[in-house]
Amino acid sequence: HVQLVESGGGSVKAGGSLRLSCDMRLNGHRMYCLGWFRQASGKEREGVASITIDGRTSVAEGMKGRFTISQDNAGNTLSLQMNSLKPKDTAMYFCAAGQVRATFDRLSASRYQYFGPGTQVTVS
Questions:
Q1: Rounded CA gap, 10 and 28, in Å?
Q2: DSSP state letter for 89
Q3: Strand boundaries in 2-118, DSSP class E
Q4: Inter-CA distances, 54 with 38, 45, 50, 51, 101, Å
Q5: Residue of 47, 55, 93, 118 with fewest CB within 10 Å of its CB?
Q6: What pairing do the DSSP bridges indicate for beta strands 46-52 and 57-59?
Q7: Are 103 and 15 in contact (CB under 8 A)?
Q8: What's the rounded Cα separation, in Å, for the pair 54 and 51?
Q9: How many secondary structure helices (H) and strands (E) does the chain include?
Q10: Which phi and psi (to 5°) does residue 110 adopt?
């Protein structure tokens, strides 16, 4: 049973920064890919960033240079550093885990098996 719990969301002014964390309890499940997704009100869930088991990262266009995904050495915490935040970054942010192999699938929500409940980020 895989458990993911996000934290670190909040309200911030445009241009500010936030660091999201995801506490991961994989309970022996070896996940090939971890990711961050977001969903704004009335919109579909979209990929933000991903990291594979061997450390390869992907960041969605429009967030490159502003968002950085990382994982601690123990593999228990997934992080998303968000800088230069914009009002359009306002959304619920979710961490995810899955057996995603294809590079072009790593930012596709439908390819992930597990999601956390989410943490709200509001940029004004």
A1: 31
A2: G
A3: 3-7, 10-12, 18-25, 33-39, 46-52, 57-59, 67-71, 77-82, 91-98, 114-115
A4: 24, 25, 12, 8, 12
A5: 55
A6: antiparallel
A7: no
A8: 8
A9: 0, 11
A10: -65, -15
Residues 6+ apart with CB under 8 A from 73: none
- Using DSSP's 3-state secondary structure scheme, residue 105 falls into helix
Distance CA 2, CA 76 (A): 12
- Could you tell me if 35 and 103 are in contact, meaning their C-beta atoms sit under 8 angstroms apart? no
The residue behind tokens 């359009």 is: 88
Question: And the tokens for 27?
Answer: 């309970």
Token digits for 17?
Answer: 């920064």
- Which tokens in the block code for residue 43? 């919109």
Give me 96's structure tokens: 């995810």
The tokens describing 64, both together, are 């490159």
